User: Fold this.
Amino acid sequence: MVTIVWLVWLALLAGNDPTDSVLLESVLVAMVLFGILFSGDVIESILATGWMTYRRIDDQFVAVDRLTDEPQWSAPVETLRNVAVVDTVFPDRWFGTRTFTVTVGRDDDEE
Assistant:
């Protein structure tokens, strides 16, 4: 998205008076937009999953919000399947966390 905005910005400004300052302004705009978008993705990820912890309590797998210390959802352990660690989540590197995916349910009708 930043690349598209940068190219459009450059095309609009280059039509008037193509100089080095136009290129510099367009690069600065692109960098600011990239920073805003990147920060938004990190904040969104933190708000969505940053305070979640997962616990096994007896035969239940429970997701608990650490801010409110309230359970968000639970599922019987025997219904968990297709568990996989997601290695492509960038904020995990900063916060020392791990993101994983799991399918809950015994068959496709109960997911």
User: Anything to note?
Assistant: The longest strand covers residues 70-76. DSSP finds three helices and five strands in the chain.
